[in-house]
Specification:
The protein has 446 residues and is an alpha/beta fold. It has two domains: 271 residues, Rossmann fold (3-Layer(aba) Sandwich); 71 residues, no CATH class.
């Protein structure tokens, strides 16, 4: 496979536990009721344009983007709008959502539901971006940043490279892996579409070397495209972070507090590339996604294609149920994911995985005292001092936290993983980022 590329600073090697890597994508039955949250993207929540009693079809617009950094939401099912009310989200808070009672499965006539692959690209750059915006596409790797915004660099900035993230470095998760194996051709077309939207001449698809089948498959597909190159990356968490992937792919470093476009790069997930293909070539909005359902005690680890708004209980049932010794359910992977408090939580655009951890795995170890070993600093891929930042956050010294660049923290959890004293560094860092972020916004609004 030649030279294995990686980032230079920090990183760890947790056990991969890719238990569902060989599980083909299966489709989850349409739920009897879909609960579609209005806040499914980074930025402003969407604003509903339907009301109680309205009949909707699959793919019909339910809510419009609530600002520049926001995204449209479409109906994942057909039926009657029961109500617009609060529902529990993945963080445990009650937030506005649209409740739809399902009646049949009638799709909007404009959507191409055939299995035919449409490879010819006929639209202009602006038309591609407009279709992506209309379809409500967001970053499918979990960040959920509106895709159309990423494809419109600010004045004075120019994209030179498009980097497609097929790393999936988070332990347990395999949704992107399976998508590359089963929808590789569509991902390549989605990549070409975004290249045209950005007017870039070169794209890289980064895949870690623990996925040799995906590497070989995508390499075979890009033989016909001189402007797309597969880069084999060394297994090293968090290789899938934007800044780490840029360093590994094109050896450029994004400055502190800046975005990838600062060094001429735009990064998109393979799931996003597939969604872009469906939006532009098939006129299909983002109404479903692949979710990994897994865990060491799970009887049938799976990769499931589920409609947005489907209760996660339905996905767990398809994986043959909740294991008796489950101590915690994580939305996402074990490093960056967050605990889910209810099985009523539904699939959203950013749902990458459902991880059921055994009680003995999920129990917190008693926090010890910092022994100044500096392991957290050594593994930090952003070059921060997590022990110092966590202490500042714990003591409420947010001025110090800001001065020490806490907003550069990518919340990867490497420091937490490496700490021999089991100090919940990531918890303190997230708290500190939340508070410092509020301070910065208030300062900028004055």
């Amino acid at each position: 496979m030649g030279i294995l590329r990686t980032f230079a600073l920090g990183g760890i090697h947790p056990v991969e536990n890719k238990l569902s890597a060989n599980a083909p994508i299966e489709t989850v039955p349409v739920p009897k009721q879909a609960i579609v949250p209005l806040g499914q993207n980074l930025g402003a929540p969407s604003k509903p344009i339907v009301a109680k009693g309205d009949m909707v079809k699959v793919g019909q617009l339910l809510a419009e983007a609530g600002g520049f950094i926001s995204a449209n939401i479409h109906s994942p099912v057909s039926g009657k709008v029961l109500k617009i009310d609060n529902a529990i989200d993945g963080t445990g808070y009650k937030r506005p959502a649209i409740f739809i009672n399902v009646e049949g499965d009638e799709w909007d006539e404009s959507i191409d539901t055939s299995a035919d692959i449409v490879s010819e690209i006929t639209l202009s750059s602006k038309e591609i971006i407009d279709k992506i915006k209309d379809a409500g596409i967001v970053g499918m790797g979990g960040a959920t940043f509106p895709t159309h915004v990423k494809l419109m660099p600010p004045p004075g900035k120019t994209a030179e490279y498009l980097i497609i993230n097929g790393v999936e470095c988070e332990p347990y998760l395999t949704a992107d892996h399976r998508l590359m194996l089963e929808k590789g051709q569509e991902i390549i077309i989605g990549t070409k579409l975004m290249m045209k939207a950005l007017n870039v001449k070169k794209a890289f698809i980064g895949i870690e070397n623990n996925k040799p089948d995906a590497i070989n498959h995508i390499r075979e597909l890009v033989k016909a495209h001189d402007d797309i190159e597969v880069q084999v990356l060394k297994v090293q968490y968090p290789q899938g972070g934007e800044k780490q992937l840029i360093k590994a792919s094109v050896n450029r470093e994004v400055p502190s507090g800046k975005l990838p476009i600062e060094v001429g790069c735009v990064v998109q997930n393979v799931g996003t590339a597939f969604a872009v293909y469906e939006a532009v070539q098939k006129n299909k909005p983002l109404i479903e996604r692949v979710v990994t359902v897994t865990g060491k005690a799970v009887k049938r680890p799976s990769n499931l294609l589920a409609r947005i708004g489907t209760p996660i209980a339905a996905l767990i049932e398809m994986a043959e149920g909740l294991p008796e010794n489950t101590g915690k359910i994580i939305g996402g992977g074990p490093m960056m994911g967050k605990a889910i408090i209810s099985l009523e939580v539904t699939v959203v655009k950013g749902s990458s995985g459902i991880l059921m951890m055994k009680k003995e795995e999920s129990s917190r170890i008693v926090e010890g005292s910092c022994i100044r070993c500096s392991k957290c600093t050594y593994v930090c891929p952003m070059g921060l001092e997590p022990h110092l930042l966590s202490k500042a956050a714990k003591l409420g010294n947010y001025e110090m936290a800001e001065d020490e660049a806490i907003m550069d923290c990518m919340e990867c959890g490497s420091c937490h993983y490496a700490c021999p004293a089991s100090i919940p560094l990531l918890d303190y860092l997230r708290l500190g980022k939340l508070k410092v972020g509020q301070i910065i916004r208030n300062r900028n609004n004055k």
